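User: If you would, consider this record:
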Amino acid sequence: MNSELSRFIREHRNLTRRFFLGLGTAGVAGISSLPIVARQQEPDAVLKEKIGQVEDWLTLQNDFRDVSRGNPRPHSFDEAKRKEVGLSRDTWSLEVLTDPQNKAQLGRELTKKENTALTFDRLMDMAKTRAVRFPKIMTCLNLGCPLGNGIWEGVPLRDVIWLTEPGRNLRRVFYHGYHNDDPKQVFRSSLPVGRVLEDLHDLPPVILCYKLNGQWLEPKRGAPVRVVVPEAYGFKSVKWLTHLYLSNEWKANDTYGEQNNDVDSPLKTFCDPFPLPATVKPGQPLPVTGYAQVGISGLSKVQVWVHDDSETLAPDDEYFLQAPWHDARILGPPKNWGGGLADKVPAPTYGFDPETGQPRTWPIRLSRAHWAILLPGLPPGKYTLRCRTIDGQGAAQPMPRPFRKSGRAAIGEMSFTVEA
């Protein structure tokens, strides 16, 4: 390692430590409420400004990325068409049936034919006493970054299953949404019934969701009702829900499984930096911010490492375990949550104190956090910044599940050039 980069690493550690110690405990309580430190040095002000530009914690419905399926996509229908096909709140219904191929014993089915299918009005009656809310980051299994972070509201799916008076031979819940009356467009997913009936590991329940960030779901988000599975990737949270099948089948039937995906992998913990300038002046401190997805295993650290591209990487260190990683700072809860909400998260919401509206722990599992670090100036050259997470069990990304078909695992990286 050259002497300039060794100097950088030493300064990196000292400058980052000085900045965050200067902020103090109260200073990191919120992204939008960082105090001005007495005799604050210019590099600190640069990072403070950068932190002020960090995205909101919650995402507006219209700002969620969309990976909907269908030809045409159901959210593209006009209002009259949505009413016609049952995708408006006044025409929606959900049939809950036994799986004809692997029948579960039910006291009754909920069917349109017998006028017993669950309607939106009936769902709202249940919501008066059974509604729950929880934060969740929505992420596609095969995309590199999340689609958005929100607070989802709905009725536990189990409450609807109990309406069928289930008996023996119930092992799995199959479900799908509207698919243009074309069997080739059906997008299916499934869950073991045990997960639906019971919330293990302090998880919120699987819900029939009708609101996001306090507002009715919009068509792009799966209105009027969709499934939301707190710990799962997006393919489990099927949009435009129309049918549930209670089955004695022990295997999953997920459409994603047919495409060589791991259909039982919960959300992973990982991070990425927000975009860096393509070029930086020599000796100029570089403020870096980014986000982390807080997976099922939690988040304890975000770490950063800058590599001089002129130097060879260690040949037998695929996961960069020998690299000189340095801790970034995980930013605290924001003053304003974003997503169109008022300043206070509505009560009750899983993970939040109903009196103060503040999170009980931070970062919140199955959502996102933001992080920041100030890098001291570098000599001219080409560099790669890498970042990784350490989860709540002490596992460094990309472990413990480095397999691509189980979700994003790769260590985040971004290149930049230092030149005059």
Notes: The domain at 64-259 is CATH 3.90.420.10 (Sulfite Oxidase; Chain A, domain 2). The chain is about 15% helix and 25% strand. Residues 395 and 416 are 28 Å apart (CA to CA).
